[in-house]
Structures are given as structure tokens and as C-alpha cells.
Fold this sequence. Notes:
Mean pLDDT of chain A: 91
Strand content of chain B: under 5%
CATH architecture of the largest domain in chain B: Up-down Bundle
Number of domains of chain A: 1
Shape of chain B: elongated
Number of strands of chain A: 6
Number of helices of chain A: 8
Order of helices and strands of chain A: EHEHHEHEHHEEHH
Helix content of chain B: over 70%
Number of strands of chain B: 6
Strand order of the largest sheet of chain B: 3-2-1-4-5-6
CATH class of chain A: Alpha Beta
Mean pLDDT of chain B: 81
Distance between the termini of chain A: 15 Å
Number of helices of chain B: 28
Oligomer: heterodimer
Strand content of chain A: 5-15%
Amino acid sequence: MSANQVRKKILLLFAHPSQKRSEVNLPMFELAKSLDFVTCVDLYSEYPRHHININREQQRLVDHDIVIFQFPFYWYSTPSLLKEWQDLVLEYNFAYGPDGTALHGKTLICALSAGGAEQAYRADGYNHFTVRELLQPLEQTARLTGMRYLPPFAIFSSRSTECQRQQHLANWRKLLEALSFELINDDKVAELTTINDALPALPNLASMAV
Amino acid sequence: MTEYFLQAFIYLAAAVIAVPIAKKLGLGSVLGYLIAGVIIGPVTHLVGQETATIQHFAEFGVVMMLFLVGLELAPSMLWQMRNRLFGLGGLQVVISTGLVACIALLFEQPWSVALAIGLIFSLSSTAIVLQTFNEKGLSNTEGGRNAFSVLLMQDIAVIPMLAFIPMLALPDLVAAAEGLQSSAEHHEQLNLVAHLPTWAYAIAILASIGGVIVLGHFLSRPLFHYVASSGLREIFVATALLLVVGIAALMSLVGLSPALGTFLAGVVLANSEFRHELESNIEPFKGLLLGLFFITVGAGINFEILANQALVIGLLTLAVIVVKASVLWGLAVMFRIKNSNRWLFSLSLAQAGEFGFVLLSFSVQQHVIPTDVATILQLVVALSMFLTPVLFILFEHVIMPRYQADTSNQSYDDIGHSASVIIAGIGRFGQIVNRLLVANGVKTVVLDHEASQVENLRKIEIQSYFGDATRPDLLHTAGIENAKLLIVAIDNREQAIELIKYVKHTYPKVKILARAFDKGHNYELLQAGADYTVNETYFSALELGAEAMTELGFHPFETEQKKYAFCQTEAAASNQLYQQWLGGSEGQKFDPNYRKLFMQMEESIKQAMQRDRMDKHDGAERGWTPPPKNYEKGFD
């Protein structure tokens, strides 16, 4: 990899219906906005009445290589507008069906914040499943639409720990840089519950963003 | 008669030439008037003897100014500001007075003269400082806000000072004056209470103050209502003047200060819905008369004394600035005003003010300060005011840069709360807009020309004012310069357009949201510069239409989708129609092309409605699209 390697273009679809209360997601979104290789879309701001412009959203998908769903984890799934987005935008013969190849080869990753502790998202925890397992509908959606699926980037206990937030933001930046330079090795991350565990091994790329 | 015209011409011409130049140079209008006075007086000798006579007339400007100061002082606001106002402002007045008086004592002045001088120099220049804050955008800094409380306190303090200073009269001066008066023409003022016994005198004073308060509170509003409902603007102006002149006359008759009376009347009316209208009516008179007053001060400056005593005057000015600035600095430390704000607070208020001139001439009249001392002091006041812009430049270029780093990451105020919204027209439409905003904590100023409407709203505690929103001066008093939004919801089509044109031209930063009566009006509003328009009947009709569809058996969610599709198609086509309309010939805006386009729009809406969801991807809006029947056979 070299500094003048062409970056992949990232589409960040941010779905947060209560941004006044956001402590982790909003800083993450602001950080992403400062990076020129990330297109940042605040879905709830663009479609406050849930009337999604399908043509525009499909064009955005076509124009980017990597799609990130960023959202707070609501009832083990996405907030409703992001679900509406999936229902409307991923149309027959666009995302699936005989002519539905528009998303082939693109990457999908979720960046989510969960209020519960990491131990709760385990077979022996009170949520019984890992976040990766709970997100299986999205994983399957990616598979059906021919997208490469990466394990989620997650922060746990997101409403209680102040000190891990700075670290999380640093990791977030590292992840975005690594995604844009295609530094993530599928074989190494395929079995991970969250992609967070793969980040320490990656080089720090902030200095390359010149 | 010719003489009067000539003189009026000279005064006005001097003001017209000098004031705009002074303002451009960042000196402010007060200094502009002073310079104009200096030029037509001591420099060119165009005017001379009559300045003293004119000054009496011009002092009425001060009376009006205090009326306006009173109008600004709603008791509730004073209560909110009480700590800053009486703590910070009160201490500033007391300590500065004390220190300046001590300096005067060092110059071997009698204690009464020293005290009067202290009072005079404790005041700063409201006119210069507030105007500079506005020009430089410093009003909302911590230093600016604190400076404002101090200035307000000083303006209030003028009232007791006017009452107190006559008690300091020097027996020698009074005797000399009486000797002069008896030999000169009989000049005694009309005074009803001069020969009453003390107890009756006290009763007369209490009765007249009480009268002003009680009548101001109970009688003024029905009177204004009555006059306003006649719809005659000039009679409203006449009523406002009548009020001020009447109170001034009453106060003079019982031997009290007219300024005190009008100030009280102002406070009484501060909560009235007519406040803005009164302000904008009295303001020009006050401005001109006060300007006249400053011109006479400038014209009265004695250059001979300035030349002879330049060193003394210069040093005194410096002393005044240093003493005042140090007092302010100390108070800033005490009240925890920090960093660059401490400097701003201390430097901005270090001069003497226009009330200094007023109190000086008042003190001379009341035989408190000898004329020769007053002449020198007048020069000191003027010079310290001239130096104010220098202090601001010092602040901006030397002090600010040092603090730039720590001010940059200060968090800014909450959006809704610092933003103010002016709503013009509070009828059926404006009311709903206002209720939504107020319910969400947004500060609104509401203007309407229906006095009864305004009164009804005030009964349910909506902050509203009587006045014609299309008048620039009323918009000004409503604070259009600092408003974020103007909402136009007035009943008159043409006036709405004129209002938008004016505001867009004069205050391009203010966003304008406007209510339109119909499509044609909508386009006219857009053309006039409105940023967002809405047809008053459009959305309510749409709701009703949707309800009709649901009644007819359409599923409510399908109705919602159809309604939205209708809106989208309409909006896109409407934009096209607007372009067409703009191109249409003047006076015949709905030309045949436009009509053709309108028909096209109706057609495309119809199509959008009837298009099946299965139809392809060009609909303005589509709901969830199911895959075709038997599509699952395509998968392995």
C-alpha cells in the first residue's frame, strides 16, 4: 500500500432518531464528516417523515464501494427508518433478482452502539446472542445482494462509560481509514464477533491522510 | 423668520455632513454631533450667542431619552438582572464617584463640587458604547452583556442624581445668580407650588407622581386603543408627544425634574403592547433633539481655554480613564469576568458620557459647579469620549489576539434560545406559527396593526406589540438586525411583498418565511426574495382531501402515500411553473404558456397517482415494491 493509492469511497448511512441524546454516535458522525472519502448521510434529517427518495438512495449505492449502517441498537435491530430504507431501496432487479447486480462486490458493515454490556451479548448473558448473531438478517441481506459482509463495529455499555469513548472514536477513525485502503483481510476477520478485535493489529493510518 | 431658517439650515447641514462621516470613521454619532458643533461654533463662528437658548430647547431631547430608557425597563427584566445591575452597576457608580471626588478634592474644590464632579464622571457613554458593540458584534460577549448592565444602571442612576444635585448648590453662586436675576429681566418660571406650605408641597409632589403612575397604567391604554382604532398615524404620533410633553409640563409645574416624570411614565408603559410603536414614534424626535444638544455642546467648547490649559485637560482626561478603568477591572475580578471579557468590560466603559454633559449644564444652572470649572470639565468629558474609539482599537488589535486561542473553543448558545423570530401579522395564520415556536422555547416578537388582536393575545400572555410591521422603524425597534427569521403573515398581499423586498434588501442575513394567498401571490413573494413560502390553504386542503379518500375506502396508509406523491409532483412542477411565470411578460404573468404548463402539471399529477407500484423506477415516490409473482423460482 502506498500513500497515493486510490481510496475506496465510503457511504455512511446514519440513522439516529434522537440525536439530542446521542453521546457516542453523534461524535462518530461528526468525525466521519471531516473525512473527504466518506459521504455522510443523516437519514433522519433527510427523511424526517419517512418518505425515502428511492432513486436518490439507489444512485448513492451505485456511486460508492463501501456501505456503513451506523445506528444505535434498538430492540436487537436497526431504528425503523433504516429498516424502511432497506425495504424500499433494495428493490427487485436492483439489489436482487436476475438483473439485480448493482451491489455486487460492494462491502457492508454495521457500526452500532449498544447500551448493554458486552458480557450480556453472549450465550450465557441475558441477551443470549452475540450482536453478530442478532444482525444475521443484515448478514443474509448482504449475501443475497452479493455484498461482502464484515463483522459489526460495536461499542457496548455506551451510555455508562465515559473513558472508552475517546478510544472508540480513535478506533472508528482507524476503521474508516483501513476500509478506504482495503486493509481488512477477510480471512482474518470472518469469524470475529466484532471487528473491533481486528483493529489493534492494523497500522495507524491517520498520518497518511494527507 | 429668515434668520430662523438660516440657523436651522446651518445646524441641520452640519449634522448631515459630520455625523455620517464620524460614523464611517468608527467614532459614533455622538462624536459626530460634537464635531459638527465645534465646526459651526468655535471654528467658523457660523453660530454663536444663541447656543444657550437652543440648549434649553435641546434638553427636551434628554427628557425624551429618559422616557425611552424607561420604556426599555420592564420591571420583570430589571428583576432578572438585579445582581449584575445593582451589584456590578451600583458599585461601579459609587466607587467611581468616590474616587473622582477625591481627585477633585485634591484640586482644592469644595466637597459639594467634588461630589457633583464625581457623579458626573461616574457615568459612561451609553450611546457610543452600545453602538460600538453593535458595530463590532460584541454585544453578546460576556464583557458586552456586563457592560450593558452597568450602562443601564448608570441610566437609572441619572434620575436620583438629577434630584440630588440641586441640594449641592453653593450659597455664593446662588447669591450671585439671584443678584443677577433681580437686575436682569424677570425670568421666573411658572411654578404652581412655589408659595405653598411645605406639607402641601409634599402632597402636590406625591399626587403628581402618583397621578403619572396611576393614569399611565389605567388611562393610557384605552387612550392609545382609541387613537389606534382611528387608523390615523399622525394622530398617534401626536398622542405620544402629548404624553411626553404633558408629563414634562406637569413635573415642571410642581417643581420636579421633567426627566424624572417621563422616565416614570416610560417604566409604567414598558409592558404595554404599544411600547414598540411609542418607541419608534418618539425615537426620531429624541434623536434629533439630542443631536441638537450635542451640537450646542460642541459649539460651546472654548478653544481658548483648551489651548491655554491643554496639559491640565489632557492629564485630567487620562486620570479619568485610568481611574474608571481600574475600578471596572477590580469589579470584573470580583464578579469573575475573565480573560478578554475583563479587558473589554474595563476599556469600553472608561470614558465619561453624554449624560456628563447633561449633568454639567444642569449643575451650572443649579449653581452647583462654577462656570469656569464646568468649561474645563466639559472639555475633559468630550476628550475622553473622543478617546473611546482608540481604546476599542487597542482592545481589538492588541488584546483580543492574545486571547483568541481560548475563545475559539467556547461553546455557543443553544440554537432556539439565542435566535429571535419576528412574526409580522398574528391573525389565524401567524398565531399557529407563534404557538408552535413559543411552545418550543423560541423567543418571538409579534407585530400586528390590529390593536384589539394584540390585546387579546396579551391576555393569553403572548408577547405581542401593536404596530404596522411594514414600517422600517418599527421593524428596527423589534430588533430586525439581530433576528434570525422574519415570518410574514400579514393580511395585505401588496404590503407583504413590499415588506419582503425591503427586509431582503436592507437585512440580507434575515431569512424570510412567508404565507401566500394563492399560487400567483406565492410566486410574487418568491420573486420579492422570500426564502420559503407556503400557500395558506394548501396543506389544510390536502389533509381534508386525504380524509375524503380514506372515507371513500382507500386504506389510510395508501392515502398517505398518494398525498405525499401529490405533494412531490406538485412541488417539482410548481418550480417549473415559477420559472415560466418569471419569464412571462410584466403585468400578464399568467400568459398562455403558463396556462399550458399548468395543464401539464395537472396531467403529470394524475399520472403519478394512477401509476401502479409495479411500474418502473421513475415515480416521484413509491412504496414498498413486491417482487414479481413466482420470482423465487429464480433462486437455486
